């Protein structure tokens, strides 16, 4: 973790001098320099003092680069197809994935499947049937449903027009075969 580099970047972005930071935190110039150059690891109390002075939450300083906010512009989204379904990927791969899935009339996700994680679905348009184990429910525009994805599940468009679902999938492991 390069907490010091992050502290320096925030300080510079906010146009704060090291002298101002020393005055505001009570820390010495040499100590702040060592922190910013990743030569020393400050205690949690010291990090809290620095984060308060910089006006950023302490947990933000502890995030690794890959944990920072990520944005995907509409023009940068990737698209794929699966069993006649059009899929627009709204988030990058990782623990939490979101996608818009368009089901043509009569289309389904294929056979009931199961995988690690949890899913949450919001029907933006149309009417679907959602099945998991022995549970079956008709879900319409504006309705949502969620489930533990380790139990076999199935979704099918039962309306006369297309159905569009916003689907969020969370898993601790990389999912490569759900869509």
CATH topology of the largest domain: Jelly Rolls
- Number of separate domains: 2
How much of the residues is beta strand, in percent? 25-35%
- For the secondary structure, the number of strands is 9
Q: For the residues shown, what is the average pLDDT? A: 90
- Proportion of helical residues: 10-25%
Strand order of the largest sheet: 1-2-3-9-4-7
The helix/strand class is alpha+beta
Total helical segments: 5
CATH superfamily of the largest domain: Jelly Rolls
What is the CATH architecture descriptor of the largest domain? Sandwich
Radius of gyration: 24 Å
Element-by-element helix/strand order? HHHHHEEEEEEEEE
Low-confidence stretches: none
Distance between the termini: 33 Å
CATH class of the largest domain: Mainly Beta
- Coarse shape: elongated
Mind explaining what this structure looks like?
With 179 residues, the chain is of the alpha+beta class. It has helices at residues 3-13, 18-25, 29-36, 44-54, 58-62; strands at 78-82, 85-89, 96-103, 118-125, 127-132, 135-140, 144-148, 153-157, 163-170. It has two domains: 3-66, 434 Repressor (Amino-terminal Domain) (Orthogonal Bundle), CATH 1.10.260; 74-170, Jelly Rolls. It is 24% helix and 31% strand. The strands form two sheets. Strands 1-2-3-9-4-7 form a six-stranded antiparallel sheet, with no helix packed on it. Strands 6-5-8 form a three-stranded antiparallel sheet, with no helix packed on it.
